[in-house]
Amino acid sequence: MQIDVAKGAGAYVSDIDLNSPGSDDIQAIREALGQHGVLFFRNQRITPEAHIAFAERFAAININRFFAALPEYPKIAQVLKEPSQKQNIGETWHTDHSYDQIPALGSILVARELPKTGGDTLFVNQFAAYDALDPALKKQLSTLTATHSSRHVFGEQAYRKNADDMTGRLGNASAATQDAVHPIIIKHPFSGRPALYVNPQFTIRINELDQQQSAELLQQLYTHSTNERFQHRFQWQPGSIAFWDNRATWHKALNDYAGYRRLMHRITIEGESLSG
Ligand code: SIN
Prior knowledge:
The strands form 4 sheets. Strands 1, 2, 3, 4, 5, 6, 7, 15 and 17 form a 9-stranded mixed β-sheet that branches. The chain has 8 helices and 17 strands. By secondary structure, the protein is of the alpha+beta class.
């Protein structure tokens, strides 16, 4: 197995067949996630069964409460946009499940049907974003916590706004009751590396500041994290897989392929509670 660091965020992993990884490969992938935050694989011919088996080598599968699953594989969520649909899933920068008390480790996304052009996914490296912060700001952030919520994204109100376009793709709005508090600087559970853990979609406030100070500081951190030097743009090809770690990255699915179908299979893996 070979690991090549990518520009901005993540690493490309080659010389491995994810249909049958050995124990050493799983350990190396775990360590690489703790160092690079997202891993990209090419030319894989993985079956849904092998996708599930690979995910279960890391932890139990988290069955998504809001995404439609594949009817024949309830452990696999569909990330789908039909040619007639306008909105895609995941266009705002985010890290999945930060609204849970125990946020998911990450997801393994497999390309199944791709548009002729477009449909790339952007990632940012929240280890590098943390490392580049001013030392005084690092010190201030180390004492702060933030609240994250699912309500405004997957709840009734949000769903009603997009109901027609999202029907059959997202649902179960009454289950969007989760709010969770996490440190703003977390230690990655695998590597102990510090990472910046707030994101534009699910973080709703910094608890120790007033509303305005909280909004200003969050905006400052978002502007910092989205600097191009922390970003990697992953271009999907048939056989591509991305495995991201939510504790070290954000992602954003570009919606620039009107009139084409894009279907991805996503499996999300359970994580652990986060500490600063
Ligand atoms: C997601 O946010 O899980 C979707 C990512 C993608 O479709 O590229």
